[in-house]
Write a sequence for this structure.
């Protein structure tokens, strides 16, 4: 496979091995490995991190292997964001996987086809691998578009990543002028993102992906969503999970397959049906129900 693949890992050899086997099956010409370092207060981390790094560097096919290994622990937010900075300094586009995001075989050709088709279309920001709609949003092709989507296996271009700002330095100004209200007509959605972005901007959440969603929303970019789910998250509900130690209702959503060549949608517009399904299943937004945060008359 000619498209570079970037794999982000830490200290979980079992899930890492499964994801690496899927990557090895497509034999990418360029493989970029980003690893966080061991935590000082976790005695087992050093050995686990070393085992993970051994797994992901055991490349047995012709490949330009590049590694970015942190000597100490940076945490989820800083490690992934700085790792992606490094990735997109090296390559123009990449498929991105984390150690617990198990791709279906069709994930790779789907991402490659979408990266190729929309490479110069600045309306499109990200290609996603997950679809949790379960038939609630039926596209007229083999994929649809949404203003945001899951990043459990995704792909993008340097042209999109250049808008990323880990600190979300313009957020206070954007919030003050009502950016989210301009983007969304549903007050529940506006409040959800205000709360999420407020927490992130205040440094109370160690993550990186809210800043990516914020960046693509600011640029009015769309995400490409496959018609079937192509990623299974095998890391949720584990004590060593970073954010999802409790089982997640869509984590082990079954994956499917696509037919190639892909059928393309007739229009490049966001699917409201998918957004509503995603907001309900992933964010817990109950459309059509009374909102306790809404002021009463």
């Amino acid at each position: 496979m000619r498209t570079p693949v970037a794999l982000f890992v830490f200290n979980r050899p079992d899930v890492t091995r499964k994801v690496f086997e899927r990557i090895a099956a497509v034999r990418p010409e360029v493989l970029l490995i980003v690893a966080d370092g061991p935590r000082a207060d976790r005695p087992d981390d050093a050995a686990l991190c070393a085992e993970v790094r051994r797994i992901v560097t055991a490349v047995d096919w012709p490949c330009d292997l590049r590694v970015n290994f942190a000597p100490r622990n940076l945490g989820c937010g800083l490690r992934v964001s700085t790792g992606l900075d490094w990735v997109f300094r090296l390559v123009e586009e990449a498929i991105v996987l984390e150690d617990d995001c198990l791709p279906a075989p069709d994930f790779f050709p789907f991402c490659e086809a979408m990266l190729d088709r929309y490479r110069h279309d600045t309306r499109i920001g990200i290609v996603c691998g997950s679809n949790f709609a379960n038939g609630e949003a039926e596209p007229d092709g083999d994929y649809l578009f949404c203003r945001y989507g899951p990043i459990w296996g995704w792909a993008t271009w340097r042209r999109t990543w250049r808008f990323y700002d880990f600190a979300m330095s313009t957020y206070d100004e954007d919030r003050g002028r009502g950016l989210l209200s301009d983007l969304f007509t549903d007050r529940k959605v506006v409040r959800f993102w205000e709360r999420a972005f407020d927490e992130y901007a205040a440094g109370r959440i160690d993550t990186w992906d809210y800043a990516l969603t914020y960046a693509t929303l600011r640029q009015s970019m769309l995400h490409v969503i496959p018609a079937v789910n192509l990623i299974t998250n095998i890391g949720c509900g584990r004590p060593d999970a970073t954010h999802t130690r409790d089982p997640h209702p869509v984590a082990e959503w079954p994956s499917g397959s696509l037919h190639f060549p892909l059928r393309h949608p007739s229009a490049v517009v966001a699917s409201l049906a998918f957004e509503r399904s995603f907001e309900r299943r992933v964010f817990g937004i109950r459309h059509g129900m009374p909102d306790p945060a809404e002021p009463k008359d």
